[in-house]
Request: fold
Amino acid sequence: MGYYHVVNWATHHENSRSRQIRNITWVPVPNKHDGEGFLRIMEQPDGMIIYAAWHLILQVASKCHPRGTLVRDDGTPLTPVAIALKARASEADIVRAIEVLVSPEVNWLKEVTEIVDDDDDDDSGDGCQEGDGQVIPGCQEGDGCPSQKGREGKGTEGKETREGSSGDDHIQPTSPYPKSFEDWWAHYPRKVGKDKALPAWKRAGKRLKDSRDIASKQAAVVLLEAVQAYSKSPKGLGDFCPHPATWLNEGRYSDDRAEWNREGGSKSPPSEETPPI
Reply:
């Protein structure tokens, strides 16, 4: 099976506050009740159960990485059985809810073949509640976001804590780059052309995924392990280390690593930035 992904997660279930937090203990939800998707659910005889199951699914999705895609930490999909187990819910209710949620009439959930990052979720479907509008960025008292009192650690919502304080959540600066790319970038020895490196990194991951028949998360691990080895080699430590995008576009992650460790490897001529394959 593929992965279940919440349609338009970034639009409907993130706001300026949640995007600053790596591990959230709450999730924004639109509160209007006149969208077509909502009406389609509530016209079902078991509409209340389906809608309750939807909120449990949202809560499980909010704790996955990336948020919004129902996936385990090892990159394998969360099945309806696993979702029910995590939510302490009836398996039959979760299966029934997913059946309705993925229907074209509702389209709040979809099945995808690979993990979707929040930034890549540009689906133009109706999303969480058609016609309900977007979640307003930022938080106000009573909006379903953490109140100021909650942020101080005295409320029942928003138990996230600032860096250095107690608790599991840490507010971190918002980054436009996927975490797995940031991990790769942290190891590459030459910090130039980051915006060009990102699409090259994505293309390299896709080539690895297709050529080796592996998942996207495994392809990211291959790239990370390669750059870790390269960064410690004479080539990586030399004066003529290529641009990150060039290294990726040329498929250098697949080089024989003995070449990186050859005597005099740091004396190779500089490499011009190579156009993408």
